[in-house]
Write a structure and sequence with these properties.
The chain is mainly alpha-helical and about 120 residues long. It has a single domain, classed as Cytochrome Bc1 Complex, Chain D, domain 2. It has five helices and two strands. The radius of gyration is 17 Å and the shape is globular.
Length: about 120
């Protein structure tokens, strides 16, 4: 019984372990994509600028099953956003190479969602 319980716990933890490892391998690619698209001009990692910080975005979507898809849609739709000073403008559409690479966009969304307070 104890052996089965331990095995079941270990097996249940595998997706978490592997998804974290995969995410860790792609952090630099996500940071590079954010830099190429000038995301950090409006978003700070943990501090708001004209737009919300990545941390605030991560907290907003915490536990939401559709978070990655919603962030990808936001990054690619050019929707109107409200800035810190109350003005509105269209959000810049994230560009990837090759164009519209959903895998890269999802990786960047995962990176944003992974930001934690220090």
């Amino acid at each position: 019984m104890k052996r089965n319980l331990a095995a079941n716990v270990a097996i249940a933890a595998l997706p978490t372990i592997f998804s974290t490892a995969v995410l860790a391998q792609d952090v630099e690619a996500a940071k590079a994509l954010a830099q190429q698209n000038n995301c950090m001009q409006c978003h700070g990692l943990r501090n708001d600028k004209d737009g919300p910080s990545f941390l605030k975005i991560a907290e907003k979507y915490q536990g939401k099953a559709t978070a990655i898809d919603e962030l990808v849609k936001h990054m690619t739709s050019g929707a109107e956003v409200k800035l810190a000073d109350g003005t509105k403008e269209k959000h810049k559409v994230a560009q990837t190479m090759p164009p519209n690479d959903v895998k890269q966009l999802k990786n960047m969304a995962q990176y944003i969602l992974s930001v934690k307070p220090k």
